[in-house]
Amino acid sequence: MASISSNETVTQREQSMVLEDVKLIYTIFADVPPKTKLLLLELHRDNHMEYLLSGLQQLGPSFCVLDANRPWICYWILHSIALLGESIATGLEDRTIDFLSRCQDPDGGYGGGPGQMPHLATTYAAVNSLITLGDEKSLSSIDRDKIYRFLLSMKDSNGAFRMHDAGEMDVRACYTAISVASVLNILDNELVRDVGNYILSCQTYEGGISGEPGSEAHGGYTFCGLATMILINEVDRLDLATLLDWVVFRQGVEGGFQGRTNKLVDGCYSFWQGGIFALLQRFHTIIGESMTLLDAGQANCADSSLTTVESDISDGEESLDGISSSDGEACVTQQGGRIISKGGDEACFFQPGGREPLFNSIALQRYILLCSQDSGGGLKDKPQKGRDHYHTCYCLSGLSVSQHCWSKDEDSSPLPGAVLGPYFNLLEPINPIHNVVLERYREAQEFFTRA
Ligand SMILES: CC(C)=CCC/C(C)=C/CC/C(C)=C/COP(=O)(O)OP(=O)(O)O
Ligand SMILES: [Zn+2]
Predict the structure, then answer these.
(1) SS3 for the chain, per residue?
(2) What pLDDT score does 66 carry?
(3) What share of the chain in percent tops pLDDT 70?
(4) Which of 202, 266, 206 is nearest to 241 (CA)?
(5) Would you say the CB of residue 171 lies under 6 angstroms from ligand 1?
(6) Are 268 and 381 in contact (CB under 8 A)?
(7) Of the candidates 324, 248, 254, which has an alpha carbon nearest to the alpha carbon of residue 281?
(8) Alpha carbon nearest to ligand 1 atom 20, residue
(9) Residue 386 near residue 400, CB atoms below 8 Å
């Protein structure tokens, strides 16, 4: 898979079927008393844990579903467990470290299973899994010298990376290579050389980033491209104003995000698109300058669609405040092309150093909790779909980003009003560049600075 195919616009019928499902859910929700609302908004932690643990236990030699994807399954499950603030039993942890070690190629990098050829995506998944497990045994099982050689061997003469030997070259490959090198503290000029030029050549007329030059902008690749540019310190080369403009328009009336123009919302984009806001907010210190280019007219996009959610879908619902765990101190409402703070003051679309997220974080949490959650455990794309580990991981990652995006810095706990539903829904914060739980990222940083 080199990249996504050209955009087949969804039919009006498909779009309205999803909207009907979501509307029904929100209408029922709007009619129940506040106590029931809180119950409906509960994150089903125990059921999610049960679903995740049973997935991890199946990773033994006989596990053959998605056989070339096993380090991914480990990452999606382990990261979801860490987001929930939980850990796994020592025996299971040892077996997972041992399994991932057997996926490590003698010449460096990790394959999709023992004996399989090394691949950048599974190397990223394995490294993030081991960082998430996080102790000495886990971190020291990574052969950094060999990984460095593997990464270098994946680099093309034009500066970009290939996913595997003679494999496809794309923005995902650049991100996974640079993310791994950075987190393991082996990033150098040789790995960085000309990657920025490649990413730049993938920013499209819409403002988002495509998988390869000439393709369509997509949330997955925009996240990968932006995170890479931040890691190599070249983010200012991107046109950030149009990128922000593009991503703001991807939040739908349902509250969730779509991956690209004219496609359906999907829970996994809660992270791929929601994470872009976290990157822009946390890691781009001079973003305020670029954002002054966005006038109120452009900001209008987010407002009009989300105002529609309130009037169309949540008909009868007093306000989002009524379903937050506090009286919604931190909530803003969006009106008439401007963002208005609760006190009624008009705020500019982006306030440098300010705390307001650039998307409707409460509407996103509502989509995740009410439309993407399987009450029996696991999360999913949209109401009529089934759960899976990929969507569980990225819906929870997006939920964490949307709960923590109001905090003034990454070490502050969110105010109750920033968390939709009971405060017990609060997940661990992440480092959004690598998408690992913040505390584990810091421990790894310390370990690999010493090592
Ligand atoms: C780290 C790493 C490996 C990142 C991957 C990022 C990512 C999610 C890329 C998008 C991949 C893709 C094929 C999307 C289109 O699918 P689609 O056409 O089925 O979905 P759509 O209709 O929502 O666009
Ligand atoms: Zn999805």
Answers:
(1) CCCCCCCCCCCHHHHHHHHHHHHHHHHHHHHCCHHHHHHHCCCCHHHHHHHHHHHHHCCCCCCCCCHHHHHHHHHHHHHHHHHCCCCCCHHHHHHHHHHHHHHECCCCCECCCCCCCCCHHHHHHHHHHHHHHCCHHHHHCCCHHHHHHHHHHCECCCCCEECCCCCCECHHHHHHHHHHHHHCCCCCHHHHCCHHHHHHCCECCCCCECCCCCCCCCHHHHHHHHHHHHHCCCHHHCCHHHHHHHHHCCECCCCCEECCCCCCECCCHHHHCHHHHHHHHHHCCCHHHHHCCCCHHHHHHHHHHHHHHHHHHCCCCCCHHHHECCCCCCCCEEECCEEECCCCCEECCCCCCCCCCCCCHHHHHHHHHHHCECCCCCECCCCCCCCEHHHHHHHHHHHHHHHHCCCCCCCCCCCHHHCECCHHHCCCCEECCCCEEHHHHHHHHHHHHHC
(2) 59
(3) 81
(4) 206
(5) no
(6) yes
(7) 248
(8) 259
(9) no
Does 121 contact ligand 1 (Cβ within 6 A)?
A: yes
How far apart are alpha carbons 106 and 215 in whole angstroms?
Answer: 35
Among the options 70, 162, 263, 382, which is catalytic? 263
Instruction: State residue 58's pLDDT score.
Output: 81
* The residue count for the chain: 451
The protein residue whose alpha carbon is closest to atom 2 in ligand 1 is 172
Note the pLDDT tens digit of each residue in 229-288. Answer: 999 999 999 999 999 999 999 999 999 999 999 999 999 999 999 999 999 998 875 455
Which pair of tokens denotes residue 346? 């008009």
pTM here is 0.88
Kindly state the average pLDDT of the residues 150-176: 98
